[in-house]
Design goal:
10 helices; 17% strand; 6-stranded mixed beta sheet; alpha/beta; Lambda Exonuclease, Chain A; 264 residues; binds iron/sulfur cluster; globular; 2 domains
Length: 264
């Protein structure tokens, strides 16, 4: 059997940048999987993404109206990770409000573009790894340009500047540029709770720089010695992290004693 090249996605890379030990426990060391807990914000985001995928998929005629979107939300709601049923019901109500408002605005909006893909995985050979990314939606405009649309379920506001510095949006642009080298590509973040949008587009030089940086970062991620790595305490992350017990078992984990007592 031929060994497949390792792959890196925007979420793997973001995890590494937040905390290398977290990357290790999530992706590189099997012991981590026993400590991972469901998260309500992942369930909430996945539930909304599922309805939007169906709404924009021309092959799925089951979610075309506000009422159908609300009914689909009831049917496919993901319950994992909520602290109790009251929290879960409140989130379901909020999710329905967001989806109904989004669907109504989309119905009212004049159609400029057609949807080319929903939830499509792209892959790009980066040398010693493949960059992969699943895009929420890609629209095609009459002039042939393509727009990547990424839904954010937790973010309250969004600006063009946010798109410029967003790692995932940079990765998606690289992936789509490689698949469609003759098209103009732009990327949009759509904040679902406020229905605000931010849009940006790489120049050729920016895309080349980003690709080089990503290649170097990817090499560092994949070639790092995770076995011998000492986790570094972070006051903003560690107290709420699933892997705190694993990191505490490392002799060199530099957790302040006061924090250890509070969260034990
Ligand atoms: S406990 Fe802290 S150091 Fe360990 S994986 Fe989590 S965030 Fe990283």
């Amino acid at each position: 059997m031929v060994d497949r090249k390792p792959s890196l996605s925007p979420s793997k890379i973001s995890t590494y940048l937040a905390c290398a030990a977290k990357y290790k426990w999530t992706y590189a060391d099997e012991r981590g999987r026993w400590y991972m807990r469901s998260k309500s914000y992942f369930s909430f985001g996945s539930s909304l993404h599922l309805i939007l995928e169906r709404f924009h998929d021309s092959g799925d005629m089951g979610v075309q109206t506000v009422e159908e979107a609300a009914a689909a939300m009831d049917e496919s709601w993901i319950e994992a990770g909520y602290a109790n049923s009251q929290d879960m019901q409140e989130a379901l109500g909020e999710g329905k409000r967001i989806i109904q408002s989004y669907v109504q605005q989309e119905i009212d909006r004049p159609k400029e573009a057609k949807t080319l893909f929903v939830e499509k995985l792209f892959r790009l050979d980066m040398g010693c790894f493949d960059l992969i990314g699943r895009m929420d939606r890609v629209d095609e405009y009459p002039d042939g340009s393509l727009e990547i649309v990424d839904y954010k379920t937790q973010r309250k506001g969004v600006s063009d500047e946010d798109v410029k510095v967003d790692l995932a949006m940079g990765c998606y642009q690289l992936l789509l540029r490689a698949a469609y080298p003759d098209r103009q590509i732009r990327a949009t973040i759509n904040s679902l709770s406020t229905n605000e949008r931010g849009t940006g587009s790489f120049s050729d030089a920016e895309a080349a720089d980003f690709r080089n940086d990503l290649q170097q970062l990817g090499n560092s991620i994949l070639n790092r010695d995770y076995e011998g790595m000492a986790p570094v305490f972070r006051a903003d992350l560690c107290p709420h992290c699933d892997f705190l017990r694993l990191c505490r078992s490392h002799d060199d984990f530099n957790e302040p004693p006061s924090t250890a007592q509070e969260s034990s």
